[in-house]
Design brief:
Elements (H helix, E strand, L loop, with lengths): L2 H38 L1 H10 L5 H19 L4 E6 L2 E6 L16 H14 L5 E7 L8 E7 L1
Antiparallel strand pairs: 1-2, 2-4, 3-4
Helix pairs in contact: 1-4, 3-4
The structure holds zinc ion.
Length: about 150
């Protein structure tokens, strides 16, 4: 699907469910996409988690998301990267799959929030994971920022 098609799909879901309802639906869709990615690459995630065994939750989340950022950067011909501040990990992306050519006063990339959340939360079953988008290109930010807090 082209970038603009995905954006149109998200807008159609907003039309049907309203902003609040769409947020929940799109978040769930993102989680499903992550579940498929994990089930299609079982060894990849096992190997990845073995490599960070004994590390903190934030370090594990950072490792998982670094892999995602590298895959997104190369496959989608865009730039995604990770920053970390203690137990908070930031996934940052210029991909704009869900906010392409859109303007909003609040973040709107709920599919990516669900995707990032599921990838981390499913691999850290003993931790509480909170994920939200704190900055969005639809808000005229230079990139979208997804904050992942590990408790
Ligand atoms: Zn965004």
């Amino acid at each position: 699907m082209k970038t603009s098609d995905v954006t149109k799909l998200a807008m159609a879901i907003e039309d049907i469910f309203g902003k609040r309802g769409a947020k929940a639906v799109l978040f769930r869709a993102g989680r499903m996409i992550a579940k498929w990615s994990i089930s299609e690459n079982p060894d990849l995630f096992k190997t990845l988690l073995c490599s960070v065994e004994g590390k903190s939750g934030a370090e594990k989340a950072e490792t998982i998301l670094q892999l995602v950022a590298a895959a997104v950067s190369s496959q989608m011909n865009t730039k995604a990267w990770i920053d970390r501040d203690g137990e908070i990990v930031y996934y940052k992306s210029k991909n704009a799959s869900y906010c392409f050519n859109r303007k909003s006063e609040e973040p709107i990339c709920h599919v990516v929030v669900g995707f990032v959340h599921e990838l981390v939360a499913s691999q850290l079953p003993k931790s509480e994971v909170e994920t939200k988008e704190t900055g969005c290109m639809a808000m005229n930010e230079p990139h979208c920022t997804y904050q992942v807090i590990i408790k």
